[in-house]
Structures are given as C-alpha cells and as structure tokens.
Amino acid sequence: MNVKIKKNGFLFFKRNKIKCAVGKKGIKVNKKEGDKATPKGIFSIGKLYYRSDRIKLGKLKLIKKQIKKNMGWCHNINNRNYNKEVKFKSYRDAEKLYRNDHKYNIFLVINANNNPIKKGAGSAIFLHLTKNYKKTNGCIAIKLDDFKFIINKINKKTKIIIG
Q1: Residue range 12-29: average pLDDT?
Q2: Edge-to-edge strands, sheet with 71-74
Q3: What is the pLDDT of residue 7?
Q4: pLDDT tens for residues 9-20?
Q5: 3-162 is classed in which CATH architecture?
Q6: 88/85 Cα distance (integer angstroms)
Q7: Are 96 and 8 spatial neighbours (Cβ–Cβ below 8 Å)?
Q8: Where are the domains of the chain?
Q9: Could you tell me the pTM of the whole model?
C-alpha cells in the first residue's frame, strides 16, 4: 500500500484523500539543494523519527528513532555527511531536528537522493507535520491525526509516489 502525493496539495492513501502541503516551487523532476521544490519520483521510506516527550507511539511496522537535542540533518553539499543524520553543530551545516515548533515532533524520512547520494540534489526530504498547510521547502506536510493514521498502516516496503 503506497502513499501518493499530487501537485494539487493532496495525498492519497488507501481510499483516503488527505490535504497536504508540498514545496513552495511545486514538484520537480530535477530537484536541487535549496530550490524549495519537492522531488518527483517513487521513493522508499526511511526511519520514523519522533520526540518521545511529545509523541507516544504504539507498535509500528517501521524502524523508529527518538530525536535527541543534538541531532541534525546535513544540508551542506561540501560536507561528507551531506543528506545524512548528524550530531548538530551549526545551522550552516545542518538542519536541527529537535525543534521548538511542532513540525518535527514526528517525521518520516523520504529516501530521495540517498542511493547513491548526489551532492546538491536535495537533502532532508521528509513527511512531517503542519498546522496550517503552509508550503514547505521541499518536504510533504500533513496534520498529526493524518500522520498517525498513515504510520499505523504502512511498513518499510511502502513507497512514496510524488507527482
């Protein structure tokens, strides 16, 4: 059972049509770092990250990892850890995962640009939370209730189809 995201701002899962936000510049085939577009394609899913102080999870068929205060995701194309989880050192090299806002209370890694990783082809593409469906910098964003519905029904073989 796959998750399909359309450019019109809807996610389709099973027989459900769920409102979502995509990148400010829409969905693009040739995603570039910082272009504010969501990559088009068929992607596997990675780990499910969550803040255990804010989200309680039951048993899932996904690989889970608790977000710690020192965690980040490298977006510096000159860093050897580009598009990977890192220990957070600065905003110049990485996006902080332990945030004060709600967006990353729980998120699922979309394995875009990961096998192999191409420098400058985009990083930190996640399915994360939103409260207002504001356009993203390239991720897909949905409400918490919709997120919980989806993660309880998917597994590591699920594909994310964007475009």
Answers
A1: 97
A2: 85-87, 71-74, 94-96
A3: 87
A4: 999 999 999 999
A5: Beta Barrel (2.40)
A6: 9
A7: no
A8: 3-162
A9: 0.96
